[in-house]
Amino acid sequence: MLSTQEITQFTEVCTRIGDEVADESGFVKIRDLLNRFHASVIVRPLLVEGMLATINEQPGGGPQSQRWAVLIDSETYRISDSDIANESSSRPLTPRLRNTIAHELAHSLAFRPSEFGITLNHSNGGGIKSSFVRSIEQMTEGLSPLLLFTDKALKQLVKGRKTQVSVEELDELRQRLGISREVLVARLWRLRAAEDGRFRDSTALRGLGVGIGEWTSDGGAHLRSWPLYINFDRNIAPSVFRMLPKQNHLAARTAFPDGDWVLSGGRDPGGHPNSPTCGRVKLPHLTCS
Fold first, then answer.
1. Are 237 and 211 a contacting pair, CB within 8 Å?
2. What are phi and psi of 66, to 5 degrees?
């Protein structure tokens, strides 16, 4: 298991790298992220979406003769070098591909921590213990959002705000940063563990719960237990946020008994259930605890 100090180091490194390579709006170009990790992308047939590899520049060479590569499955992602080179905030690569690459780059930290100033207590005869590598893999999905949803972007989101952010604003931000809903909410979740509270205590992100749901064939919805961001004063939150961590794919009609509400399969307050504004429909009576 990783110690608290080691987790903090990995978190700080990824946060710093994200800000270093981001443009003024907070958008991270994948080519700049690859360059910062001294890595390249190789597209080829694989049995998985992506994986990390090293390439020896010289046969029999040591660590200094190696370079890093992110292997991407050519059947899942049909991209070229020019697609990566020409990426911009107005034409980002797909969110899934961006997170796959960021995930593998974050994973590479387990094999070369000293290169990024990380001090570990898991060395074993000059190498890295396999249990430590497994621990890194388990936390990698928590690190990749730091590389793509940067502090720069968060600062712009909350700066000077006196009101909560809206679903529309979060969705616009997600699209502008080229990230998925899962990455966005996972990044917000990490704010709950931040010690400085710079963003967590902002009015923009207080009194707020953000999660992800999936529409079902009967017109209702299921709510996912992860990722989930909850930030209410004195930890007094609507009861649905107490139920979700204990039950994945919670039926919305269980959390919200009002059958007329859109998430429970009804039509109140109107509009198609797939409308991007459905997250701002009026809430039925909620029990807080």
1. no
2. -100, 150
Element (H, E) at 185: helix 181-191
Tally the residues of the chain. 289
Q: Are residues 9 and 107 in the same domain?
A: yes
Give CA separation, 120 vs 70, 130, 209, in Å. 24, 13, 35
| Count of beta carbons in the 10 Å neighbourhood of residue 28 | 29
Task: Check residue 57 and give its pLDDT.
Answer: 64
CA dihedral sign, ordered 239, 240, 244, 247 = positive
pLDDT score at 268: 64
Better-scored residue on pLDDT, 60 or 225 = 225
Domain count, the chain: 2
Nearest partner of 148 among 14, 286, 28, judged by Cα? 28
Q: What token pair was written down for 130?
A: 């396999």
Question: What average pLDDT does range 276-289 have in this prediction?
Answer: 39
Say what the pTM is.
0.84
Residues 133 and 188 both lie in one domain = no
Give the C-alpha separation, 138 to 140, whole Å: 6
Structure tokens at 192: 């709950």
One domain for residues 139 and 238: no
Write out the H or E segment, with its range, that includes residue 177.
helix 167-177
Residues 97 and 159 occupy one common structural domain: no
Amino acid code (one letter) for 278: C
Please give the residue that has the higher pLDDT: either 124 or 241: 241
Q: What's residue 128's pLDDT?
A: 56
Q: Does 167 lie in the same domain as 139?
A: no
Q: Which of 177, 211, 172 is CA-nearest to residue 33?
A: 177
List, for residues 70-89, the tens digit of each pLDDT value.
Answer: 999 999 999 999 999 999 99
Whether the per-residue pLDDT at 287 is higher than 50: the answer is no
Is residue 280 within 8 Å of 166, Cβ to Cβ? yes
CA distance 136 to 203: 33
